Amino acid sequence: MANKKYWQSFGELNNSEAYEKSISNEFKEDLPFESADKKGLDVSPASRRDFLKYLGFSTAAAIVAASCETKVRKAIPYVNKPQDMVPGVADYYATTYVSGGEAIPVVAKVRDGRPIKLEGNTLSTFTKGGSSARMQASVLDLYDTARLKGPYANNSATAIDVVDRDIKGALAGLGGGQLVLLTSTITSPSAKQVIAEFLAKYPNSKHVQYDAISYTGILLANEATFGKRAIPTYNFGNAQTIVSLGADFLCTWLSPVEFQHGYSKNRKVHEKNVEMSKHFQFESMMSTTGASADERFVHRPSEAGIVAAALLSAVNGQGATGVTGKLKEGIEKAAKELVANKGKGLVVSGSNNTQVQIIVNAINEAIGAYGSTISWGNPILMHQGIDSEMVSLVQDMEAGRVGALLIYGANPSYEYFDAERFNKGLKSVKLSVSFNDRKDETTELCKYVVPAPHFLESWGDAEPKAGIISLIQPTINPLFNTRPFEESLLKWSGNATAWDVYLKNYWIAKLGSVGTFDKALQDGVIETQAMVEAATFNAAPVAQAIAAANAMKKGGEFEVVVYQKVGVGSGKQANNPWLLELPDPITRVSWDNYAVISPVVAKKFGIDLNDRGSADKYEVNTEKPVIKVKVRGKEVELPIIVIPGTQENTIAIAVGYGRSKGVGRSVGAADGGTLGKNAYPFLSFNGSTIEWNGQAEMEKTDKLYKIAQGQTHNSYEGREGVIREVTFEEYKKEPNVILHERAKELEHYGGIEGFAKEGTIYPDYPGENKPGIKWGMSIDLNSCFGCGACVVACHIENNVPIVGKHEVARYHDMHWLRIDRYFSGNPNDAESIQTVFQPMLCQHCDNAPCENVCPVAATHHSQEGINMMAYNRCIGTRYCANNCPYKVRRFNWADYTGADSFPNNQQPLVDEGNLDDVILMMNDDLTRMVLNPDVTVRSRGVMEKCSFCVQRTQAGKLEAKKQNRPLSNDDVKTACQQACSADAIVFGNANDSQSLVSQVRKQYNSRLYHSLEETHTMPNVNYLAKVRNTAEISNEGVLGTIVGGSHAEEAPAEAAAAEHKG
Amino acid sequence: MIDHRATVKRILFSALFFLLLSVGNKLSAQDGKAIFQNNCASCHSVFKDLTGPALGGVTSRGPWTDHKKLYEWVHNPSKFMASDPYTAGLKQKFGGVVMTSFDALSEKEIDAVIDYVEKTFKAGPPTSGPQGTPGAGGAQVIDEKDNSILYGVLTLILAVVALIMLQVNSNLKKLSDDKDGLPSYEPIPFYRNKSYITILVLVLFVIGGFYIVKGAIGLGRSQNYQPEQPIFYSHKVHAGVNQINCLYCHGGAMEGKHANIPSVNICMNCHMTISEYSGTAGKLFREDGTEVNGTDEIKKIYAAAGWDPAKKAYKENAGHEIAWTKIHNLPDHVFFSHAQHVNAGKVQCQTCHGEITKMDEVKQFADLSMGWCINCHRTTKVNFGGKSGEEGNKFYSIYEKFHDDLKTHKKVNEFGDTITVAAVRDSITVADIGGLECQKCHY
């Protein structure tokens, strides 16, 4: 396993010349010293005398400026202060994150009347306090500059009563036209009652639920085989064998927050618990879940049905039929495991095809999954849309049968696969009303807009799973003149009750008393265990489904597969810079979508990864070749990204990009176009459900497109020991294999114990409990799936600036915490690719290389083990970043936050095209309300990095002091730790043997290691090595024959041999 | 400041210890005073009627001759009043306001308060002007006699003498040279002597530089800043003469970052009944010498609260905020928490804010510079709590090992060996547990 070679980029894999050159400089450009004529200092006409003049002038100017009168500040207290509110102390309110049908119970941190951070609600048994990147980022949507500030009629701002009068009149005079309420899935029981009352008021009306990300296939399959149109609960925690047929269940599929928690339970291996689930993934593109799989096999997108059918026949003991080669072996292997672990297996499929889902149901029935890993108690209600209803609605609209269309939460003009027809139909609808909060693609075309408030301003409830209710309460007074969608419906149905009163009455009636309602509101959740209804499997439709599945396979050279990125998802929160700048876990690209192709296909477009020249041309240049992809007559031009592990006939394109300007300021490209392209038109309707793949044609163009891709610039200079990985086989035989490995490496330096002591000047106190505090963090690589919730949480908590696409492309990204992705294996062999995600943040080294080189002592070590950064001392030499082996220090190249003393020094840079407009958006007075007042915003020329959430450690300590007690485990949680649904990150006082981090370090000692331990930096962050449940670790980490390069001799012989075969 | 630390500490212990925690067995008038100030002083005085009646001589009137009745009353006034006409009469007299119940006060504590009240009453009303919170660094403002002018004059005289001597010396030298027939240069007048000019320039440079640097450091600092406030609120009257506890109005100091300026409803707690300034602290004057009509200032509160003093009721939607001028301003990159200092650190308010009890309008006492913060962190001792639960904050129990080592003169070195060292100090200061680290305040 020591032979395993990890690589982040093809350049690193090849040790190419350009790559070596590119990594030799931490910072690829000089400081932007430029004279007015932009020729640089060397040829500047300014003489030394001029320099002295400038110096003198600026000193004098600074003195004059500084000696101006100090600003008079006012302090304005309340007239009548609410009793429990103390200015400067945060209040917490339980509420619910809602986006489309998705709902996650949250607790909102409110500082002086402004919600500034969301955390998962730990009282919920559904998410158990977990969170997702989108939930974390949603607090920014509240302060979005693109939100509508009041109602609109025919594209001009109007008063609400005028709109009410007009709409009421129009609704009364519909004639024979149908009234349709089109929404995304609504789980709220009270809102459903409002809708029912509204529809009852108007005969010839109906409610259509339409989800951009549809799960109709599962709903219909369950109706066919179990007689219920519902989505059951999947208990990944009970599953010993997990087979996923293209389902990205850890990041985007169904209910990932819940699934991550369950899945991670069986991945946390330690020497006393030598048991681990085994996860097979069959898919076409490299999904984030596939990257975490133990074994991964690829197939053409249209083969999803055949794979499912083959798995069913293999499970039934008839062998995998209809497939060949590695795929056949893989399916049989998976089937063998499923049969061996009967009752402990689980098969899920990401397909939206009813036939495929029927086969999957049959497999789950055959392996006894129902009742153990799949349960009909508390079914998932977050996705109720049925595709065919939407299709027939569009037909009705076109035929002029629809008189009024009320749209809430849905955006068909963008999300619907045939948006053109929808738009055409919308024109013939007499009354169109949108409740959406911004002028998105659909709202733009509607006659009336009555914007609904953000969930943080609303009253409401959600029922993500049957019997699991999460209440919504406002955390801020509505910022704009908005009105809840429910209140509008109440009004238009002649009910004068205000929505909040209606909701309260609804729940008080249900719960019995005001007291119980208040308690429920405080907790945020109301949970009842639903009766598990027995459901008998009806095998009748299976045979037909198999026949249909076998007929799905398509020929042709290419097939497109459309997917969701973990950040942007379906595009409901498209104007959220935190999500747009979050790099995709696999491609590491932010701000755009693109066409993902395999290294094999790349060759056809002049990118031969075996050829150093062309690989470099592709990789080192930020400008990527653009291709034209054509599906069913619709075509888009997208840049390519080559990702190993992609099936060679597959092109993968993400949805959620290519938005109209009305969505917000951050979705536009600097050249006036859009960031990315819309991929929804590539979906198609097969008569009952919407398919997410199809045959494609691909064409080369001679255009290039700039892509902001991170990570390739961060190199470890060939040092080993960043990642440690072991197979489960090896681990079972010898749990201490990692320990032995470390002991061997550190033998010369006094062994693992002595190694630390040798190099420290800190006193080493004997015993388990050491005096004082020493903060430590442990990160389990087995529980990290790359979902990025921690990255976004870190951004919010620490006021980390957004830098925009062009700055990311220049590697000026500011992420304090990033998730590095390492591949291993042979890029030409998709099945051999194995992936490891590693959250990388400041390691807070006790022997920190950065501290020694700072000329002004701006960074040094605290007694509590934190590597501190004093921004006001920093003069921006960047020596520290150069000397950091982990590459976690971030430099403010421009004034991203508006913290400089000079006002408006961003606008000129934006006008020149050196900065993106999103910087201005993030510095809008409205957007800045989201800043954490306990953390300084950094100005230009200052280095920054992870602080271990020092504002939280300080606040936690103070809380303990206020209560006159020692520090406890719950006092301090870092933002990343709190965001993680899989508990991969644990933080605490390592000097206390009872703290969480000490416990974890003790329990998982066999997997514990420090990244780049041999450099003797002595980090306070440790990792728990990755254990992969396979027989072997891919170590064919070499492409082609390497000439030159310092690592050629390290290339294992068998890897080179394997390469020749490939 | 350092000299008074012990005094300040003592007061702290008596005051805040009682405010926060239960009490021990022995309670004296001294403790009674603390309890009185923390619980009673916002409504009662010993000598005069405030929101509630003057407490002096309380045990000799009404039902209070029986101490048991007094306990009942303090623990639950409404209940007691139902069966007692005397207190019902008092309610009428004091605008229908019933006393807050203090069921947490033990009988011993009430006794201690009574003890204090009676003793103070017997001693008679204070004659020598307002009384500050005792011991609150009264000596801090005593100016040390400034000798710098004397030294300056001396230096100047000596310099002139030296100059004359040098001149004399050179003249004499010239004379003797002439006498000896040695060639001599024409004497240069001293103002053209390059050595003198050089020395003068250097001296001016050093002096000028010193003042420029000093001035530059002082930029942005505003010690002694005393803006005029929208309402002439006198801390001397409230915190000084009437001895209202600081935390009664600035309660945020115990909870979070900001001490908080009280909202208008807090003012109204007392000013519902106190509608005029009776001159308890003498005539009030602004800094410019103009006299202030205290009653008019109280009317400004009524305007802000929307209170109608004639009807004794709030008007509908009539209130407005008061925009006070903020005096103590810290730069944005500084994190300062009142709770850490007042609640956890038990620092007395006056340590940083000066003799508030003697100020009418508040002025900034300290310069709030980083050096000032650091000096205090260097000298302030950490209030360690022992395992046995002695006084001190139990949070610091994690540092107990350090504390024990200090006592026994032991130290653990980097090899894990315990060695004996000479006693270098007797305590741990804030600086010793990381109080000087950048990221304790800058993050």
Could you please describe the fold and organization of this structure?
The complex is a heterodimer of chains A (1062) and B (443). By secondary structure, chain A is an alpha/beta fold. The model of chain A is unreliable at 713-717 and 1036-1062 (pLDDT under 50). Chain B is mainly α. Chain B folds into four domains: 2-125, Cytochrome c-like domain (Cytochrome Bc1 Complex, Chain D, domain 2, Orthogonal Bundle), CATH 1.10.760.10; 148-218, no CATH class; 235-372, no CATH class; 385-427, no CATH class. In chain B, 44% of the residues lie in helices and 4% in strands. At the A-B interface, strand 1 and helix 32 of A face helix 11, helix 12, strand 5, helix 14 and helix 17 of B. Strand 1 of chain A pairs antiparallel with strand 5 of chain B, so a sheet runs across the interface.
Write a concise keyword list for the protein shown above.
heterodimer, A: 1062 residues, alpha/beta, Alpha-Beta Plaits, Rossmann fold, Dimethylsulfoxide Reductase, domain 2, 4 domains, six-stranded mixed β-barrel, 42 strands, B: 443 residues, mainly alpha, Cytochrome Bc1 Complex, Chain D, domain 2, two-stranded antiparallel ribbon, 17 helices, 4% strand, elongated, TAT_var_transloc_signal_dom (chain A), 4Fe4S_Fe-S-bd (chain A), [Fe-S]-binding protein (chain A), Cytochrome C (chain B)
- Report strand order across the widest sheet of chain B: 1-2
The overall pLDDT average of chain A reads 87
Note the main sheet of chain A.
Answer: 7 strands, mixed
Calculate Rg of chain B over CA atoms.
31 Å
How many helices of chain B? The count is 17
Large-scale geometry of chain A: globular
Percentage of residues in DSSP E strands of chain B: under 5%
Sheet with most strands of chain B: 2 strands, antiparallel
Q: Tell me the greatest interface.
A: A-B, 60 and 63 residues
Structural class call of chain A reads alpha/beta
Strand order of the largest sheet of chain A: 6-5-17-16-15-7-8
Tell me the distance between the termini of chain A.
21 Å
Provide the low-confidence segments of chain B as ranges. Answer: 11-26, 128-144
CATH topology of the largest domain in chain A: Alpha-Beta Plaits
The beta-strand count of chain B equals 7
Give the % helix of chain A.
25-40%
Shape of chain B: elongated
Quick check: average pLDDT of chain B? Answer: 79
Identify the quaternary structure here. heterodimer
Main structural class of chain B: mainly alpha
Q: Please identify, by name, the CATH architecture of the largest domain in chain A.
A: 2-Layer Sandwich
Domain Cytochrome c (chain B): 27-121
Protein name (chain B): Cytochrome C
Keywords (chain B): Heme, Iron, Membrane, Metal-binding, Transmembrane, Transmembrane helix
Pfam families (chain B): Cytochrom_C
